[in-house]
Amino acid sequence: MVYNLFSIVRKNNPQDSVNCSLCGLGSDYSGFCDPCLSAVQRQGQYCQQCGNSLGKQPIGAVCGQCLKKPPRYQALIAATHYEFPVNHAISEMKFEKQLHHIRSFSNLLLDELITYYQDIPLPQAIVPIPLHSNRLRERGFNQSQLIAKHLTRKLEIPMLEDALLRIKDTPHQIGLKAIERRKNLKRAFSVKQELPKHIALVDDVVTTGSTIQEASKQCLKHGVDRIDVWCLAKT
Ligand SMILES: [Zn+2]
Ligand SMILES: [Zn+2]
Predict the structure, then answer these.
(1) Cα–Cα distance, 28 to 17 (Å, whole number)
(2) What is the pLDDT of residues 133-146, one digit of tens each?
């Protein structure tokens, strides 16, 4: 089933009009004014499977790394590239509770999703990457769940917020090498219910992909055969 995503996303347009998430000036429905929008939009071509830059490879291609050893997920769709001013906004969102960024960046992600799912079916459910209960207590909210909540409303597909559980309290991953991240994340997740065949995993930022790889591994053991990753920013 192919949805008419364009009409779904824009049907609440008038009351959605807000100020720009980054500079505070006027914006359209998306939450960014035009100059800020061009500052955050991703330029260039990216691997359809892992989301890394393709450099000079042809459009629509999968990168060499994915050809050699594909990740457990089939596609990665990112709203933006994780660099200034996006990195700054995302840390404001997480550490200073600037939650207006969730709505504006999720709207950008929706635009990417509209393009991607034009001719292919949407996932049957959205699964946010969970925080460990200690981290959740410390922060007060799970940003991935808030992003997923925004998307579930706009796309009208269910969110399974309790399906995936973080059972290991991993240290902050910032600054760690890929191999250390992978080690930390081993058996970090547990799946609490059978999942539909096609799901979207939602995370705020994807860097090395260790978190979504480990979460995907668990989901694939519980009825899933296709995972798409949706994120606000990819490094
Ligand atoms: Zn602006
Ligand atoms: Zn790739």
Answers:
(1) 6
(2) 999 999 999 999 99
